[in-house]
Amino acid sequence: MNFNSVEYFIFLPVTLTLYWAVFRHERARDLLLLTASYFFYMSWNWKYAALLFFPTVVDYFVGRFLCDTTKPLSRKIVMTISIVNNLGLLAVFKYFNFFMETVKNGSSFFGLNLHVFYHHLLLPVGISFYTFQTMSYTIDVYRRVIPAERDFIKFATFVSFFPQLIAGPIVRAAVFLPQLHKTPVIIEQHIKEGMLLIFRGLFKKIIFADLLASLAVVQVFAHPENYSSFDLLMAVYGYSFQIYNDFSGYTDIAIGSARLFGFVLPLNFNRPYLAQNVQEFWHRWHISLSTWLRDYLYIPLAGSRAKPWRVRFNLMMTMFLGGLWHGAALNFVFWGLWHGLLLTTYHQFKNIKLPSILNNVVLQRIFCFHLIVFSWLLFRISSWDKLVTYIKGLFHFSGGTAIHPLYFIILLMAAASHFVNKEWFDKCLLRLTQLPLVIQAGVYAALVLAFIGFTLDTPAFIYFQF
Amino acid sequence: MTIKIYRLIYLTLGILLLVEVGLEIRAQHKGWNTILGGLLNIKPAAEQGNKGQTQFGPTQNFPFRSLIVPFEKNPGTSRLWIASSSYAQDNYLEASRIFPNLLGEKLNQSGFRVQILNAAQEGQTIEANIKVLKETGVQWKPDYVLLYQMNLDISDLSKQFCSDSSSTSNIKHGAHDKTPPIKPKVNWGEKFIEKTTVYALLKENVTARLSQSRILAQDLGKDANNAFRQRIYNFINLSRSMGAAPILCTFSTSHDLHHQKEIPAGVKNFMLRYNIYLSPSGWFKTIDQFNDDIRQIGQEQNVLVIDLNHYLSGKPGFFRDFVHFTPEGHQMMAQVIAEKILENRLKPHEF
């Protein structure tokens, strides 16, 4: 059940109506959210439910044990069990075949012909997100940052809450569990804001991300040898805005849907292409993942408080694992390493005084944007030959275009909505919520019709695969 | 908390419902199929083809849109099964005016005693036709099985071979993994929305036009071609295993590759409504390629091929859109097929 599917638009109002019906009873409310979340997850494959339930049960008991026990050794052992369990699930379902393939390729490089075993298990959607979420819970309980959750239903709801289950934001227990313990305050303005966020997300997904993909990005990336340098450049710009609008659109729908139920989820994007350097980019892009990596990986590795070579190693390692988190393929590893390299370079030179002509915000933003754009090439193209063809093509400096003008209009609109003044833009959008209800509903109904008409393909959200 | 706080959501859904009902009423008057019409059991004006023609199916016991015949076979009478789609079902015309029934009439008049089993159903690809033939055909024991289908298979194959799987191909287990990208299992919502009038109108008037702005594929590629050939082979093998003689037909369209510029905008929109991946010239090239495949397979497998493309294609007078026939088109179809069957003096056991 994708967020941009008809099923979700039936599922959401039905769940909301039931939620209203049981709202006064805390236990029934929790049970409803839990059931709805599992129903949502099982709409992909009912067998996935077991994979979601298993770490939930393990980490629930691990959390309780860690909270109740004071013996350091026992706590360490149990904590290790939890981490091995979570990473083990990821290793089996996500990385096993990749590992085998790497072993096979590595051995054939040395002239050996190893026969390796591949499994054919489906990768459960959102596994990287919910395993990271439960891991952050157990680590926080271990560190005694938060107490363990005693109520299993509430804990299971925290792990499986459907708006953020598949592609985040990765919510910390300290943020979400206290909300589950309070009776949510829902007023009509929250519903209006939630609806606004959902439709903003859908607009980003259907009008920007999917149209950019359908009109040119897919074809140009599939056959880069057939297009001019200009088209190749426009396609990679297009992909940069496609992936941003796809993922941030998903997050908007997730935050908006949670808002309808009275929950507040954290911000996950803050106009990342306005970053002046790569470090700032990571403060603006997929914030819940970058802070997760910072708090649970980079800082435990000693972060920036170590010797310079160690800081560089820590950055490279964090970004390598961050890249691998996205998918079991070499292109994601290279993508992570490229970001690691950019971050270490930035750390090396950040204190050097630039000549005044280069010390210009706009120039720095343009420069940083292009470094990120290049990283999307690594992210998007999984074949080495194709990547080389694409990069060579970019430097042919050939003109002419096979792309329809509509693509450029959409690209400009997507860029404008990203770079325009945020306060002004949000203010304009919020004005919609102050219009008479019938007009608001009319606008949303018209948008639904536009979404149907403007849908050429119905691709799933890109981050669903992670 | 009162239910009133959700009124914006309900109001939005209500407006959408009103729009759909309004458009359905309009569509019903224009003679189209609608959900409302289906619920209230009102047949649209254009679909009352069997009115006053009680001798034609489909009925409860006779699931074909052709002259009702008893279940038991008459000795000395052959049965001809029509495996096709909306082109042969054509609910917009009286049953007596569609080509399968005109064909039956012509053959019987010529002394070739035949009963037509018109199993054509809207939206049926070759694979779907094979499924129906397997499930129902066995009981009705046809002697000949005629296949006239291509358009829907091109749409179907284009979705498989031209749509974007590349952006999600590097998921899961690494590059060696050839399993298709994860898709939600429940797709009843999609099926439902596709039946609404608002969807049909938007797809025809907005999506189809928008499709012309994308970079469209110029051909389906070798894999799709092989997949199509495999469907034809499956059809032949199934027909023969049932003891029936397969008959293949090449596919005809209102316009051809050399007269693309003359295609009216409405016809172009029709093409792109159902297939948003292939360019118009890609369409024609694929049709030509698949027709060549049919001819070649026919020769190789010793199966009669009726080259309808040669007789009908590029003659817009025979078509009411890109692929569906006018009454003249149905007449011509029946005429050509009858002539070829008689010319070849078909006998079931020869196959």
Secondary structure class of chain A reads mainly alpha
Whole-number mean pLDDT of chain A: 89
Largest interface: A-B, 80 and 57 residues
Number of strands of chain B: 5
Strand content of chain A: under 5%
Contiguous helical run count of chain A: 19
- Total individual domains of chain A: 2
Unreliable stretches of chain A (pLDDT < 50, length at least 5) are none
Our measurement of the CA-to-CA distance between the termini of chain A, rounded to an integer number of angstroms, reads 16 Å
Q: What value does the Rg of chain B take, in angstroms? A: 22 Å
Mean pLDDT of chain B: 83
Briefly say what this structure is.
Chain A has 19 helices and no strands. Chain A has 466 residues and is an all-alpha fold. The interface between A and B is large, with 80 and 57 residues.
What key phrases describe this protein's structure?
heterodimer, A: about 475 residues, mainly alpha, B: about 350 residues, alpha/beta, 5-stranded parallel β-sheet, 5 strands, about 5% strand
Describe the structure in your own words.
The complex is a heterodimer of chains A (466) and B (351). Chain A has 466 residues and is mainly alpha-helical. Chain A has 2 domains: 24-183, no CATH class; 189-465, no CATH class. Chain A has 19 helices and no strands. The longest helix of chain A has 38 residues, at 72-109. With 351 residues, chain B is an alpha/beta fold. In chain B, helix 8 (197-211) crosses helix 10 and helix 9 crosses helix 11 (280-301). The longest helix of chain B is centred in the first third of the chain and has 24 residues, at 7-30. Chain B is globular, with a radius of gyration of 22 Å. At the A-B interface, helix 1, helix 4, helix 9, helix 14 and helix 17 of A face helix 1, helix 7 and helix 8 of B.
